[in-house]
Amino acid sequence: MQSLQPSVAFFDSGIGGLTVLAACKKQINAPFYYYGDNAYAPYGNRSVLEIRGRVFSAFTLFEKMRVQAAVVACNTATTVCIDELRQRFSFPVVGTEPAVRTAAKRGGEIFVLTTRATYESLRFKTLCKRLSDEYPNANIRPFACKRLAGDIERNLLKEGYDCTSLLPKGKPAAVVLGCTHYVYMQSQIQAYYDCPTYDGNDGVARRLRGAFNDLAAARRDGQPLLTPDVLSPKTAPVFFLGSSKAYNEHVYEQMFVEK
After folding, report:
1. Fewer CB within 10 A of the terminal residue: the chain, N end or C end?
2. Residue 211 pLDDT
3. Those residues with Cβ within 8 angstroms of residue 207's Cβ, 6 or more apart along the chain or in another chain
4. Is 179 among the catalytic positions?
5. Is residue 128 annotated as part of the catalytic site, yes or no?
């Protein structure tokens, strides 16, 4: 399959990356492709080797489609293999990381809710250590919420769904949502802790827009690689890939498309 227009591909273990796609669609004028690996969700409790294999399989497809950029819309996959992806593929690859810095600036006790794989990764531990040193007034406390992403994946569209029984107890000054699945429950989590919550989705959108601006300056056969004037964010199409494409499209329409 080959993309007929300049486009960007999004990858996630399931529905979580749709929250990233929605944030990017507000800023980027281009066709989007979304690949959700729902059959293997959640990634947080899988091995590094398995996660890496699933991600590289999807990115090989993106390469064949000749997309101009790709987003790893999954915190876990980002911590596991973002550096390898950037080395292997020629198109820009934007990762998704927890907004720990933004929360740490507030000071106080900062809960960082993650998957097990993210919690155990060297990349995430290094991030928390660096920001703890940079912001000594912040007590950064990571938590591996082993069941939360999977529970959201299965139950998001069920009426009255409540995730709070799976949250760690405490009274933090702020909470960082370190998995894109958790963003669906941001209002509920914020109400439960009665404090500000932060996610990294707007940061992903800004980095993707920067990559697009760089690519827009390039030329191929005398034509821009990217043509942001052709489409508006509201009319730019979203195409779904993979065996769960129908379900992911349904979730996207239910959660993000204006009725």
Report:
1. C
2. 87
3. 94
4. yes
5. no
Residues of the chain with pLDDT > 70: what percent? 90
pLDDT tens digits for range 224-252 = 444 444 445 556 789 999 999 999 999 99
Residue 159 in tokens: 């009426």
Residue 19's CB is within 10 A of a number of other CB atoms, namely 26
Q: Which helix (H) or strand (E) holds 193?
A: helix 186-193
Structure tokens at 236: 């730019």
Task: Kindly tell me if the per-residue pLDDT of 86 is higher than 70.
Answer: yes
- Name the active-site residue from 24, 163, 179, 195: 179
Residues in the chain, overall count: 259
Query: Using CA atoms, how far apart are residues 197 and 125, in angstroms rounded to an integer?
Result: 20
Cα end-to-end span (Å), the chain: 31
The active-site residue, picked from 24, 74, 128, 163, is: 74
d(C-alpha 7, C-alpha 14), whole Å: 20
Q: How far apart are CA 250 and CA 147, in angstroms?
A: 23
Give the mean pLDDT of 56-74: 96
Q: Give the integer Cα–Cα distance in Å for 35 and 155.
A: 20
Q: What residue type is 19 in one-letter code? A: T
What is the full DSSP assignment across 8-76?
Answer: EEEEESSSTHHHHHHHHHTT--S-EEEEE-GGG---TTS-HHHHHHHHHHHHHHHHHHT-SEEEE--HH
CB 37 within 8 A of CB 56: no
Write the burial class of residue 106 (CB in 10 Å: 0-12 exposed, 13-18 middle, 19+ buried): middle
Cα distances (Å, whole numbers) of residue 156 to 2, 16, 34, 224: 32, 10, 19, 40
d(CA 49, CA 54): 9
